[in-house]
Amino acid sequence: LRTLYLKSSLSRIPQVITDLLPSLQKLSLDNEGSKLVVLNNLKKMVNLKSLELISCDLERIPHSIFSLNNLHELDLKENNLKTVEEIISFQHLQNLSCLKLWHNNIAYIPAQIGALSNLEQLSLNHNNIENLPLQLFLCTKLHYLDLSYNHLTFIPEEIQYLSNLQYFAVTNNNIEMLPDGLFQCKKLQCLLLGKNSLMSLSPHVGELSNLTHLELIGNYLETLPPELEGCQSLKRSCLIVEENLLNTLPLPVTERLQTCLDK
After folding, report:
1. Helix, strand or coil, per DSSP, at residue 121
2. Does residue 260 register a pLDDT over 90?
């Protein structure tokens, strides 16, 4: 057995799992909101590559996880994490590439996040984060970053250092302005900016030639830049914006978007 899915209300990881399934590579536990208290025997599961502890009422990241040297993916969705100070210990997990801390109560990200140099996917959506530490942008292997549904008011210019970024979501924050550095992320394919406080969209958006999805709906935009024509991969159906804003674009631009749709 390599994969085990459990949906239950456990207070501890059953010893039978750790003793009889040493070769387990994926463990997914949805505890349906019940508090998972004892996790020490997780240390025995040294072959785990993927661990999901969902709705376990965890308030801190369990220390036993830091012994799982083969871990590639960790998902702690729908817990009660308020602080993730222990994040520095993840640097010992050299294989960890995907970290999902979504749907928690995290108020800030510690600077030590920068030590996780092998991270490729980071999900921090649906938390209470107000600021991003500049050290986050040392995680230069990131290609997926979701910060939707937080309380961010700006994105640091240093985002330009995430040169491998393909998916960036900040839907439903309080962002008023986009840094020019964002448009240096030339590999961006999906950019989700809906439900913020943006007053304008930079002409530099046209430099994102790989962009296939752009969400802008629910901002304070009055026009769209004609430079959108430079987004050669963007289809009309994947430009999520108010209809009246499309009418502010020059006709050749809207025709090209529509042509892209017809192909």
Report:
1. strand
2. no
| Residue 67 located in a structural domain | yes
Contact 253, 223 (CB under 8 A): no
The domain tally of the chain equals 1
Show the CA angle centred on residue 93, arms to residues 90 and 94, nearest 5°: 120
Mean pLDDT for the chain? 95
Specify if 84 maps to a domain.
Answer: yes
φ/ψ of 99, rounded to 5, equals -125, 120
Percent of the chain scoring above 70 in pLDDT: 98
Range of the domain at 22: 1-108
Query: Any bridge partners for residue 256, and if so which?
Result: none
Rg (the chain; Cα; Å) = 21
Write down the residue that tokens 């631009």 correspond to.
Answer: 253
Q: So what's the pLDDT on residue 151? A: 98
Separation CA 171–CA 201 (nearest Å): 15
Q: How far lies 172's CA from each of 51, 142, 146, 176, 216, in Å?
A: 28, 21, 11, 12, 11
Judged by DSSP in three states, 195 sits in: coil
Asked if 229 contacts 209 with a C-beta cutoff of 8 angstroms, the reply is no
- For residue 226, give the amino acid letter: P
Q: How far is CA 196 from the centre of its chain?
A: 17
